[in-house]
Specification:
Length: 363
Amino acid sequence: MALEAATLLKFFKMEPLGFWKLLCIFFALLNLKQLPLVWHIRIINGILQYIPWNSKSRPTVPSTGPSALFRPVILTSRTAPLECDYNLHKSNSTYFADFDLGRVHLLMCLCRLGIVRTGLDLWEADGKKGSKRLGIMLGGVSMNFRREIKPLQKFEMWNRVLSWDRKWIYVVTYFVEKDRVRPRGWLLQPWRDQDHRQTQQVSEAIEESMINDRAQKKEKRTGPHPAVFATGIAKYVAKRGRLTIPPERILQDSGLLPSKPKDQETPPVSETPAMPMEGDTLPTGAALQDITSLNAETLIDEALDDPKVAETARDKQGWDWERVEGERQKGMRIAEAWNMTEKLSKEFDGDEGMALGKYYDFP
């Protein structure tokens, strides 16, 4: 008995960690987001946070109505050392892993209820056969880089809906310098405004002055927002088996669309609509200025300068179908220009000519 007790004490004896063990632990903590399976944990956590397990679960947006549709969800992160390349900044390829996480949070925050309701409706319409779940598939992603993100530097991801057509929903993400930009209101977290005023002790008069200063800076700015590191765009499609679900249906089931005029119908599935040609009439619900390759990024970046948003009756009534459709049309013109890159796949003619050579990378 005494021998067994001595063996247990020896087994559980705490020995001091050596220098190299401490160094390895410290290095692992610095690169936590790059460790194996951590990306999967981050994605799953992003999904579970919006499931109403209890009263502390994050609220979603149907109660705010259409005014929330084009508002961003903001996430914060930091550049891990293992994300950096030989130029000692965040490697271009690592942006896409963070981009995945931002899109998951946005779609869960906006469309969780709509995805569930649509899946159940289709399941019941199909005689309660098949799956109740919808699959949300990524169809394409692209990124434009403007400024570098340095090692261990904190940044924010501002994720918002850009537009949708009969098949795809388009999402845009901005990688933004942390604390460089602050929204003027919070739809789901009004307590953040109170905390900000208490910590910063900003009076209403000073805050009004800050808003005016921002408006003046925006008028003077000729290019994209200076706080933006990179801008990404992606498109998603909702599927139930081989059936494609129009994004508009999911948005309606999510309580994010206002009443739709009876004379406007959306076919269940179709290709991306063509870009408006010169002389076409567009809805007047939003500022629909001409979009070119020179001002497209500037127009997208205007999301960082949206006016202060409050959950008021006036704001809910202001987002009628005409205004929502106008904003969708404006974003769709940008998305359509990006969709032109799909034609590149038709340009591949590998078996019709010669190649320079064939080389090998590490297995």
